[in-house]
């Protein structure tokens, strides 16, 4: 049963080990189904961010980069595949934690864990492919020679949301590690349990210390100092438009690159040759998948005026070639 899943008592994952937050504070884990407190996560602050970034920087440079950032992609791929195997092994427990933490159905959480493992496998392949593309010749006019060398950007800050807690974190973690970057992951304080378990997996498979660090905590206490940290080389964020603005401002003084995936409306386009029953079915599926808490929810319709949508209660035939309206 999901309700009986044990909540691990974790600390922050910094420099390959568990570390209590500098100020000793913790945050409650709230089960969104019952609104009951079911556990705690550490509440990291700027002091912990400093320690995590320092660990990531040391891991990037260790042994002149030969341990990680300048190691062959095949070396990094072995670690990524080891993580993937552990994710498969722990799938049942991780899915239960995910369902408890963010409220999604257990089946959906289990599918997410399959995708988590698949993501690590996918980027392991890309890490290996990097070796073949290194020092590729670039065609230039006579008397010139040029070769292309790909290098990791450095220490990256990864700030992720609560609707796909582990999967969306891994979408950032796996490619960053495959490229040879070292990282500090700051998951949403609303759903951090499975991201902390990723730290446990990394410790178990022997990922070099400092390559991945995980700092949980509130956005303004952990996320903000991470975004503005002078020793972070890039920030990747998925979340709200308002927070994305703040991250861009925080990154501006050091002119660090920022990748943002922000909120928005995702339309579904319905043409006049469509099977209306299937269009309705897939629109409802898109709206309510992951409890409707998804950035690609089909909550906006663009409908061709040839569609006989008036047969469905509450949906009017479009006026003009295309008509758009929001359903919520």
UniProtKB/TrEMBL annotation:
The record's listing under Pfam families reads:
Aldedh
Q: Which GO terms describe its molecular function?
A: aldehyde dehydrogenase (NAD+) activity
Q: Which residues form the active site?
A: 261
Entry's InterPro entries? Ald_DH/histidinol_DH (IPR016161), Ald_DH_C (IPR016163), Ald_DH_CS_CYS (IPR016160), Ald_DH_CS_GLU (IPR029510), Ald_DH_N (IPR016162), Aldehyde_DH_dom (IPR015590)
Pathway-wise, it operates in:
Amine and polyamine biosynthesis; betaine biosynthesis via choline pathway; betaine from betaine aldehyde: step 1/1
UniProt superkingdom: Eukaryota
The record's annotation in Gene3D superfamilies points to: Aldehyde Dehydrogenase, Chain A, domain 1, Aldehyde Dehydrogenase, Chain A, domain 2
Is the keyword Lyase assigned to this protein?
A: no
Swiss-Prot/TrEMBL keywords: NAD, Oxidoreductase
Q: Which residues form the Aldehyde dehydrogenase domain?
A: 18-307
Which family, according to UniProt? Belongs to the aldehyde dehydrogenase family.
Question: What is the name attached to this protein's record?
Answer: Aldehyde dehydrogenase domain-containing protein
Query: Which species does the entry assign this protein to?
Result: Triticum aestivum
The top of its lineage is:
Eukaryota, Viridiplantae, Streptophyta, Embryophyta, Tracheophyta
